[in-house]
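RECORD TYPE: inverse folding
INPUT: structure tokens
STRUCTURE:
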């Protein structure tokens, strides 16, 4: 049975998170295998982000969970109950998509009330709940404005408030920030996380933005070919990728030539351990993170600084090495004065595990 607790916002009663389980989900569209036996469990109150390239199945998984797509095989369980055959209207889930999908002829408050109106809730309850939700998302002062009078970020806040107004057991977010500009996207991303933690709702968040997934999620699931390649905390996904695909897809990596010998790889004079065990010997390509690369000014160095990109506290320096090898290093921005373009440098690599490209 699902418990309820008082929320700090208006002391309204909201449900605790529930467990969500996807078991062996398979979905095919013609010759395309969108889901291939996908298994996933989301803990009560947890936010899991699904990340992956286009066509990997992340949105299909969300739509099957929400009842907007039917799986060819497998089950959807929420709070231990099988919802596989239950229509979307009876799954008790809130959904927010890339398109705001607000009704243009309704005010922000009326849009938030809409789901409650469909559930035949009394007018006074609808108005109170809409006011609470608009306060929660930080735009209570815009309650009487119509969508065309709101910015994109404000419209998406209304869409989020509408999804939460019905007190859903599960919140589904499908690329909700991709239509917004960069600054608003970061602000609203942080707000979504704050609200999700405050309400305590189990959430599945689908995105193609790696920074977004790593910043917002309790766990990140990297998908490939309809399956989970790796599922874990953001720091683990980034620092300890389980496969070369994850290492190559998540974050920026240098692709550097190396030699595989005795279970390690020799790259630019450094011997580096491997994330995945590898047998044999020979030429390979190692995936090395920019933060594992240091650049040191050295008149006798074999490299030359090509360019630097200022990113605030840190900067990325691109170095050209012999044989047309380019290396990107992440350094403290205070060091840029010593590394102008044309400077002779040497490259030093941190001894951390790396993956091999395939």
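DESIGNED SEQUENCE:
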């Amino acid at each position: 049975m699902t418990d309820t607790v008082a929320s700090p916002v208006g002391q309204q009663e909201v449900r605790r998170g529930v467990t969500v389980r996807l078991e062996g989900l398979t979905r095919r569209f013609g010759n395309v295998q969108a889901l291939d036996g996908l298994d996933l469990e989301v803990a009560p109150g947890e936010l899991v982000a699904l990340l992956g390239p286009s066509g990997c199945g992340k949105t299909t998984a969300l739509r099957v969970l929400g009842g907007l797509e039917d799986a060819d095989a497998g089950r959807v369980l929420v709070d231990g109950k099988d919802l596989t055959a239950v229509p979307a209207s009876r799954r008790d889930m809130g959904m927010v998509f890339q398109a705001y999908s607000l009704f243009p002829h309704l005010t922000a408050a009326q849009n938030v009330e809409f789901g409650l109106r469909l559930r035949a809730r009394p007018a006074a309850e609808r108005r109170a709940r809409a006011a609470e939700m608009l306060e929660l998302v930080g735009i209570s002062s815009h309650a009487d404005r119509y969508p065309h009078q709101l910015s994109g970020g404000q419209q998406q806040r209304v869409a989020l408030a509408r999804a939460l107004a019905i007190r859903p057991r599960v919140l589904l977010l499908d690329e909700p920030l991709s239509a917004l500009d960069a600054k608003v996207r970061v602000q609203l991303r942080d707000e979504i996380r704050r609200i999700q933690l405050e309400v305590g709702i189990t959430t599945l968040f689908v995105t193609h933005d790696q920074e977004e997934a790593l910043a917002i999620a309790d766990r990140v699931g990297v998908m490939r070919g309809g399956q989970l390649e790796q599922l874990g905390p953001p720091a683990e996904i980034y620092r300890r990728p389980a496969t070369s695909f994850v290492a190559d897809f998540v974050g920026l990596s240098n692709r550097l030539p190396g030699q595989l010998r005795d279970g390690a790889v020799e790259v630019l004079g450094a011997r580096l351990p491997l994330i995945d065990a590898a047998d044999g010997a020979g030429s390979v390509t190692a995936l090395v993170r920019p933060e594992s690369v240091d650049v040191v000014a050295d008149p006798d160095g074999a490299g030359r600084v090509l360019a630097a990109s200022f990113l605030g506290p840190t900067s990325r320096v691109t170095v050209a090495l012999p044989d047309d090898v380019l290396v990107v290093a992440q350094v403290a921005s205070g060091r840029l004065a010593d590394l102008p373009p044309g400077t002779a440098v040497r490259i030093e690599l941190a001894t951390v595990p790396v993956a091999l490209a395939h």
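NOTES: The first helix runs from residue 58 to 66.
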